[in-house]
User: Fold these one by one.
Assistant:
Number 1:
Amino acid sequence: MWKRIVLTLLGALISASSLSAASAMERPDAPKYGKRGAYAVGTRELSLESLPNITIWYPAQRIQGQPQRTIYQYGPLRGEGRAYRDGQVDRRGAPYPLIIFSHGLGGARLQSVFYAEHLASHGFVVIAADHPGSAFGDLLTGRVERVLESFARRPLEVLSLLEYAVRLNAEDEMLRGAIDTETVGVTGHSFGGYTALSAGGAQLNINAVRESCEGGKLPAQLCLYVQSEEIVWRTRGLSAAPQGLYPPTTDPRIKAVVALAPSSAPLFGAEGVAALRLPLMIIVGSQDRATPPERDSYPIYDAVSSVRKALVVFENAGHYIFVEQCVPALIALGRFEQCSDLVWDMQRAHDLINHFATAFFLTTLKGDAEARAALDPTAVNFVGIAYKRDGAW
C-alpha cells in the first residue's frame, strides 16, 4: 500500500510540474542559444493506436499582432505555453530536422515544454508521446509488470514515432514536406535518457549485472529488471534471454543524442554502452540522487564509442532541473522540492539546458559552425557549470 502511495505521488508530482511555467521568458542573461530562436512555434495534438497521446512542435508562421500563446491540457492540469495552437508551418527553412523527446518515469510528454518549444524556435520539429505503462497515471495501478514492459518497449516506441513522422511528412496536409526524417536527434530525461541512449545504439546486457545484483551491489530498482528479465525479452519479441548483448533498438536515421540525467547505466554495462557511436551530449546535476551521475552519467560518458561527446554538469543541482517549474497546487501540497532545485534558479537552469542542447543539435544535425564554436571549452564560462568534451569536433 505504501509503495503504491509513493508511486502515485511521484507520478502526480512529475506530471503536474510539467504544466507550469512553459510561458516564462528567458532571463536577460540567457546565453546565445538559450535565447528564443528566430521562428515562431506551432503545436498540435496527435494520436496513434499504440501511442494515443502525442504532441508535436514545429516552426510556424508568425501571425501579425497575435502573441504566441496556447494552453496545454493534461487531465485536470492546465498550463500556458508560447506557441500557436495548430499554427501554419513556416516553410522557409523546411524540411526541419526531427527531434524525438522521451519523458521520465511517471512523467509525461509535456514535462519539459520549455525545452520542446525552444528547440522548435531554432528550426527543429519536436515530437513526444506518453509512453504507455510508465507515464503519469500508469503508475497508479501499482503494476510493476507494466513498467517493465514499458522499459522494453520504450526505444521501439521512439522508432514508431520516427515512422509516424515519415507518414506525417508524406501525407499530412499541414506538415507535408516539413520534416527531415533522414536527420533525427533523440533526447530524454531520466528514464527517457535511458530511452534516448537505447534508440541511439546502446544495447542492454542484463546478464552482465546479474552477479552484481546477487552480491547486493546494485539498488533493488535495477535488480528488478534482472529478476523479471523474461518480461523484457518477451516484450522485445525474443524467444529467450540473450547470452550477452540484446539486439540493438536503433535506426541509421538517428544522428545524435542528448541524454538529460540518464538512468540505468548498469543495465547496459560498459560493453552495451560502447555500442553507442553517435555524437552524444550528457547533461546532469552533480547532486542528482534519483540517477546518481557516479552510477549513470559518468560511466556512460567514459564508455561510449562516440567520436564526438560532451558532458555538462550543473554543480550542486538535483534531478528536477529538467522539468517545468512548480504549479501552485504542488507548492500548496508541500512538494516544492519535486519541481524546483535547492541551489539553482530554475529559469537560469532552463536557459543553460536550452543553450547547450540547442547548440549541440544545431552542430550535429545542421552543421552550424557558430553553434559548434559555442561548444568549444574556451567559450563555456558559466558559473556553476563543469564542462568537457572529447573527440573530433
Number 2:
Amino acid sequence: MDLKFGTDGVRDIYGARLEEAAYNLGRAMRGDVVLGRDTRTSGEALSRAFIQGASDAGARVLQAGIMPTAGVAYLTQKAGAQFGVVISASHNPPEYNGLKVFSSEGAKVSDEEESRLGAALKVQNVRKNSPCRVIEYEGAREEYIDFLCSAGENLSGCNIALDCSNGAASVIAPEVFCRLGANVEAISVGTSGADINEGCGALHADTLVRRVPSGFDLALAFDGDSDRLIAADREGNILDGDRIMYIIAALTMQKGVKTDCVVGTVLSNGGTQEAFEKMGIEFLRADVGDKYVKMLMDASGAKIGGEQSGHIILSDYAQTGDGILTAVVLATLLKGKRAADYDYPVYPQPEVSLKVRDKGSARAEAVQAVAEEWRKRGVRVLVRPSGTEPKVRVMTECADAEKAERAMEEIIRALKSADM
C-alpha cells in the first residue's frame, strides 16, 4: 500500500519506503525550510534523505537538530521560511518515524498544499545528488526556549516533575522550567531514541504518579515530539487534555479575561461539556485531529482548543499544539492553587484500540448497526480508524457504566467478525 500524506503528514515503520518519501517531500519544497527532528534513531537518515531532496529542488534547509514539533512551527514563522518540516512519529513506538509539514505561518498546511504534497509522494524522482544546501540554524534552541519562558511567570517555590518521554522535550523542557525558577526533577530525558515513548511520557499517564519523584506540586508528561501534555496534580489526580483546558479557561476568567467558547472534540467527555457550560462557556466539538480543532477555533473565535489526548492549542501564543507551552501556562496559572479545586464529574467512557488487518472494518455495515443500536439506547459511541496505526479506536460513553461496557463488548465482537 502506498504511503499517504494526511493531516499529520506521513508516518510508517522506518525503512526504504519512508526514506523515499522523505526524499520526495524534500523535492516538493521551495525557498527556505526549517528542519527539526525528535530523538528517534532513524531521524538522521531521514534528515539526510529529505535534505538531498530539498537540495535537488533548489531549496535551502535550516537544520535545527532535535526540536519539538511546535518549536519547528515557531521557528519557521520567526525565520520567515516557506516551510517547516519535522521528522517525527509523535506518540508512536520507536520503530516508527514520519514527516510533518508546516506552512510559513507555523500552522498545518492547507488542504490544497496537503494534496500537492500527497501527489509528490507518488512521483518517481531521479536523484540529482546536487550539493546539499543546508546550514545549521544557529541559536534555534535558545530562540524557542526564550519564547516559551515569555509565556510564563516566576515559578520559584514550585516543585515540578517532568517526564520528557525520551523525546524532543528532553533538550528543552527542563531548561525552560529551571529558568522560570521552579525546583525541577526530570525523568525520561534520554536522547538515544531507542526508547522514545516506551513506558514513559504522556501515553502512560496511568503510571505517571509512580514514575515521578514524590513531593511535586505538578507532574508534566510529554510525548515523543512534545505536542501533547498530560499532567498530574499534587494529590495524584491525572489531568487529561480536557481537564487542562478547563483549568486554563477557569483561571484565565478569574483574571478577568472573558472566554466565550472553547473547542474540544467528539471524544471529549460529556462531563467536560457540562462543566464548561456551567461556567457560561460554549463548548464546541470538532472531529478528532488538531487540524480540525484549529479550523473550528478559527471559525468560532475560540482562543483555547484541544483534544483529550493532550494536544492543546492556545492561539494567543501559537497556531499549533505545544505541550511545553501549555505546561508553562498551566503551571503559571496554578501557582499557589490546587488543581483539585477545579475538578468536575465525568461520565464513564471506556476506550479501546483494536489491532486489525483492515481499518475499513470500522465502516462495516454490521459494526455500524451495532453502534447505532447502542446510540438509540442512550450510549454515545465513536468508532474510527486510527490515522497512524493499523488499529480501530472505539469509545463508548454513558452515565450507566455497565451499559457503556456492554456496548463496548458488542462493538468489539462485531469489529473482530468484520475483520476476519
